[in-house]
DNA sequence: CGGTATCCCCCATGATACTG
DNA sequence: CAGTATCATGGGGGATACCG
């Protein structure tokens, strides 16, 4: 049980650590799904992303994409057609993040049943 | 519900998919840190967790732990001393999740600098 | 000590309408 | 089609006080 100092420099449990911000960004519901979708389907237009991710509003989609663009995770390309065409693509950094996100997604998929079972058991033990 | 399925598999981009709930739970800021801490340090008391995770309030800690307990990720043990002693431990399911979370954490560590650089570049390009 | 209950505020988010 | 602006709201989460 060593401490979890990867580099000895930063500790993610401390508020000022940049990783905390990174994890916070990743933690965002829509962000994960956006990355997942781009990873699975490659370059997509804004509208395609919107219809691919059920329930996301344009506002949230744009916001997520801006954040990801700022972090260097996605690249935004504008083609000056009329009407304008905008596409989003994962950068190399984004692709590497996509792999990590895929790991989480895979874990969720593989253990979904266990979790649902655990929830049922927990809930049943409480309603009586 | 049928629309939630693609080739017999669940699609995480659909709202009703259980993986979405799982990812949502994982996405929670504190939850990730709680799992990380338990993974790194093993069984801990409530107070130890609270002081290990900078900035978390008791309310949020308890809430996170309850959710994780419900999902079968952590086990809660109560020793009837006076005052009462409560410890939390990752279950086998929780340990496997811990590995996935560690992957994300490692990614964050490794690419922190790239992200910070990307942000600076992005911000500079916008302030005139 | 660990947890619950209560109050309350504020920000993230949704809805809507509008521009290029 | 992609994005911005504006307003309203609700619930997430902080502070506090109190139980077992």
Automatic annotation (TrEMBL), chains A, B:
<dbReference type="InterPro" id="IPR036388">
    <property type="entry name" value="WH-like_DNA-bd_sf"/>
</dbReference>
<dbReference type="InterPro" id="IPR002577">
    <property type="entry name" value="HTH_HxlR"/>
</dbReference>
<dbReference type="GO" id="GO:0003677">
    <property type="term" value="F:DNA binding"/>
</dbReference>
<protein>
    <submittedName>
        <fullName>Helix-turn-helix transcriptional regulator</fullName>
    </submittedName>
</protein>
<keyword id="KW-0238">DNA-binding</keyword>
<dbReference type="InterPro" id="IPR036390">
    <property type="entry name" value="WH_DNA-bd_sf"/>
</dbReference>
<keyword id="KW-0805">Transcription regulation</keyword>
<keyword id="KW-0804">Transcription</keyword>
<feature type="domain" description="HTH hxlR-type">
    <location>
        <begin position="17"/>
        <end position="116"/>
    </location>
</feature>
<dbReference type="Pfam" id="PF01638">
    <property type="entry name" value="HxlR"/>
</dbReference>
């Amino acid at each position: 049980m060593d401490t979890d100092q990867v580099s000895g420099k930063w500790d993610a449990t401390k508020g000022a650590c940049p990783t905390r911000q990174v994890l916070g960004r990743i933690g965002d519901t829509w962000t994960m799904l956006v990355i997942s979708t781009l990873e699975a389907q490659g370059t997509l237009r804004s509208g395609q992303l919107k219809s691919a991710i059920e329930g996301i509003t344009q506002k949230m989609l744009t916001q997520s994409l801006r954040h990801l663009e700022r972090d260097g995770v996605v690249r935004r390309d504008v083609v000056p057609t009329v009407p304008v065409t905008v596409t989003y693509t994962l950068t190399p950094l984004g692709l590497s993040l996509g792999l990590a996100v895929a790991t989480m997604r895979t874990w969720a998929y593989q253990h979904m049943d266990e979790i649902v079972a655990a929830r049922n058991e927990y809930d049943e033990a409480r309603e009586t």
